Amino acid sequence: MTKCCSIARSWSLLALAAAILTTITITPISGQIHAESFARAYRNLASTRATDVDLPWGDINVLVLTDVHSWIAGHGRHESNMDADYGDILSFYQKLKEYANFREKDLFFVMNGDFMDGTGLSTTPPQHLTPLLEHMEWDVVNLGNHELYDNQTVEWVANNFVPHWKGNYLTSNTVLTETGKPIGNRYTYLYGKHSNSTILSFGFLYNFKGNCKASHVETVQDVVRQEWFINVLSKENYDAILVMAHMHVTDPLVDVIRIAIRNVVGNDMPIQFMTGHSHIRSYKVLDDFSASFEAGKFLDTVGFASFPKKGTTPAFKHKDDPFVLNRTEMLFPHVYMDTNRRKLADLLHVEALPTPAGMMLSDKIHQTQEMLSLMEKLGCASHTFPLKSGLDEPFSLWGLYLTEVIPAMLTQHDKSTIFVQSTGGLRYSLFEGNVVLDDVVSVTPFNDTVYKIGSDVSGSTLLQMLHVTHINEPQVGQKLPKYGVSCTDFDANNKYDILTAQFDSAYLHNRLQTVTGLPVPPPQPIHSKTSGGGYVKTTKLWVEYIKTYWPCRPFSSLGGHPLEAASPDTIVVQEEKPLATAIFISLVVLGVWMHSRQADRRRGYRQIGEMPSPMKIYGNAKYSQY
Question: What is the reported pTM?
Answer without folding.
Answer: 0.81
